[in-house]
Description:
The chain has about 100 residues and is an alpha+beta fold. The protein contains three helices and five strands. The radius of gyration is 13 Å and the shape is globular.
Amino acid sequence: MPKFYYTYGTDPRYPFHGGWTEIEAPDWAAANGLFRTFHPDRGTGLYNYADSYSEAEFLATEMAVNGNFDACCHERITVSREVFKQGEPISHCLPEGGCNADES
Length: 104
């Protein structure tokens, strides 16, 4: 199933500081619906994330290797949601050698 990535910046109103949420869904519409279920819009047309990427787009960024604002994958949303603890190895979110893979 395709993966979609929703990244966070430094706005304290985001669900997380930096890093991202990974969503497995059949398409963008389903991924957006899942994301917005767990992290509702902050207002009309004001989404609760900084940017979103398809898997190919995300893996082509530096974030996939080096993280985003000193954070990596905070949660994976699929049929069941996984939330990761700060400092927990997240190499299972990315291909080998991805963000903080050396922590596992």
